Amino acid sequence: MNITIITTGGTIAKTFDERDGMLHNEQPIVEQIVAGLRLPDLNVAYCHVLSKDSLEFTDDDRQLVLKNVRKMITGCDAVIVSHGTDTLEKTGELLCREIPQPTIPILLTGAMRPFEFRDTDATQNLTEALLACRLVAAGVYVVMHNRVLSFPGVVKDREALTFVKKK
After folding, report:
1. Tens place of pLDDT per residue across the chain (167 aa)
2. Widest CA span in the chain
3. Quick one: which of 23, 34, 103, 165 has the most CB atoms within 10 Å?
4. CA distance 114 to 90
5. What span, in angstroms and rounded, lies between the C-alpha atoms of 8 and 48?
6. Residue 2 gets which letter from DSSP?
């Protein structure tokens, strides 16, 4: 199976800078997570598009993600977009609207806590997204916290710190 992972930054990729005591998006971290997994029959390609907190995303940034997803869907079996959770739903809705009948699964995932934190959900969410690539039909989804939710109508539940379908 051939999968492309598009990275955009977000909490999953934040690293702690001891000099200023802040968390920053400086480099993709997803490759490091995947390298620690056993994936014997999976070919993973990476497309590093952005390195931003999703709260800083502009409409142009979302268009850049859309452009890269469109470019990648012709050459692989699934696309995963590693994305910040604060505005993931906006990007998911855009992908759903602009690619109304995708031919492969397009999955968005991220983390509520950075990968380098001890209590991170990054590895779980990325692993779930990798598995979902094999199991779900073509469409646009968010995959996090043992859930696979299809767009449209996915929202972040800020109280429960996960994603849910809009009621």
Report:
1. 999 999 998 877 777 777 888 776 677 789 889 999 999 999 999 999 998 989 999 999 999 999 999 999 998 999 999 999 999 999 999 999 999 999 999 999 999 887 877 889 999 999 999 999 999 999 999 999 999 999 999 999 999 989 999 87
2. 47
3. 34
4. 21
5. 7
6. E
Q: What is the 3-state secondary structure (H, E, C) of 45-79?
A: EEEEEEEECHHHCCHHHHHHHHHHHHHHCCCCCEE
Q: Is the Cα torsion angle 48, 53, 54, 58 positive or negative in sign?
A: negative
Q: Which CATH architecture has domain 2-165?
A: 3-Layer(aba) Sandwich (3.40)
CA angle 1, 46, 121 (to 5 degrees): 85
Alpha helices in the chain (DSSP H): 30-35, 59-72, 88-98, 122-135
Identify whether the C-beta of residue 106 lies closer than 8 Å to the C-beta of residue 94: no
Contact 129, 103 (CB under 8 A): no
What is the C-alpha separation between 57 and 9, in angstroms, rounded? 10
Which residue type does 164 have? V
* Token digits of residue 165: 């379908």
Cα 107–chain centre separation: 7
